[in-house]
Amino acid sequence: MPPTMATPHLPLPSHRRRDVTVTQPRVVLVLLLARIAPLAALILGVSASAGTPSLAEPSAPVQQNIQNIQDALPAESPRVPPVGERLTYDVKFSAVRVGRGVMEVVGYENVRGVSALHVRFVVKGGTFFYKVNDVLESWIDTARFVSLRHTQELSEGSRDRERQFEFFPQRRTFSLNGGAEEPGVADPLDEGSFLYFVRRVPLVVGQTYEFNRYFRPDRNPVRIIVLRKERIKVPAGEFNTIVIQPIIKAKGLFSEGGKAQVWLTDDSTRAMVQMKSSLPIGSLNLYLREYRPAAGAPLVRGT
Predict the structure, then answer these.
(1) Rounded distance, CA 29 to CA 151, Å?
(2) Is pLDDT at 143 greater than 80 in this prediction?
(3) Residues ≥6 apart with Cβ < 8 Å to 130
(4) pLDDT digits (tens, 9 = 90+) for 162-218
(5) Measured between alpha carbons, how far is residue 72 from residues 231, 232, 248, 263 in Å?
(6) Strand locations in 10-113 (E)
(7) DSSP string, 24-41
(8) What angle is formed at CA 278 by the lines to CA 260 and CA 274, rounded to 5 degrees?
(9) Is the separation of the CB atoms in 241 and 266 below 8 Å?
(10) What pLDDT digit, counting tens, does each position of 60-70 carry?
């Protein structure tokens, strides 16, 4: 087991924030916003159902264990997201819009001598007395597609929290806020990098994929169930999609007892178009409003 080491705590990047005001009872928002942060990564509608989404079950999925990305993919994957890609989502609680989410690729930055892809997920929403403004960021070594760093700036109501994770794949360890290193995994992924990783997986309807890639070993394996293909309409247009159900051994939208589903474009980009999750008091849904595939590129509309 590697020796315990201290890691210097780097300052978190600052962001200029602007609140989005909506109207929704506080008790509902507290329950809702407590579930938004675990999207991260993920995880971000005029045509959506106002009630709890109908969740179709796959028929007899075939187990396919993939523990290392090289087992399933070529060395050069076409699904590394381009710099400047930006997806904007409406966040709705059942039929009520409660905020907006942005998922974007910022660029390449140096992390301990490695050129790492910097991705960011921002969620803003709330009321005049309760606001949420969460920023989650990840830095990914795209040569191996492993996480090197993950930060969280969470501002929810009167509570502010900051976390910085540093990942050391060569030692199979990670640290939190500059503390002692803890046991990790060889090819770590955090919540923010996982949906980008899923783009690289050859998703086949009816199969279940398992990955021992989540950075906390006791929460592995992460399962991806490929449910079906479906054409859907969202504010950004109509898209042919492939529907997956991610399952992580942790609390939140993708927990083992949850029924969250994610709709990805059925093409080489695998961009996230929609997400729905059943909750005891309704449903939490995300719908793609705008999609810019790269810096300077025009907005993409569904056909």
Answers:
(1) 24
(2) yes
(3) 26, 29, 30, 33, 157
(4) 999 999 999 999 999 999 999 999 999 998 898 889 888 889 999 999 999 999 999
(5) 27, 29, 21, 22
(6) 62-65, 86-93, 96-111
(7) --HHHHHHHHHHHGGGTT
(8) 50
(9) yes
(10) 333 444 333 33
Q: Is 119 helix (H, G, I), strand (E, B) or coil?
A: strand
Please report, to the nearest 10 degrees, the dihedral formed by the alpha carbons of residues 224, 248, 71, 85 taken in order: 80
Sequence-distant (6+) residues with CB within 8 A of 250 are 38, 216, 219
For residue 127, give both structure tokens. 């009321």
Exposure letters 22-33 (e unless 16+ CB within 10 A, then b): bebeeebbeebb
Which residues does 54 contact at the CB level (< 8 Å), separation at least 6?
Answer: none
Measured between alpha carbons, how far is 66 from 70 in angstroms, rounded to an integer?
A: 9
Q: How far apart are CA 51 and CA 20, in angstroms?
A: 24
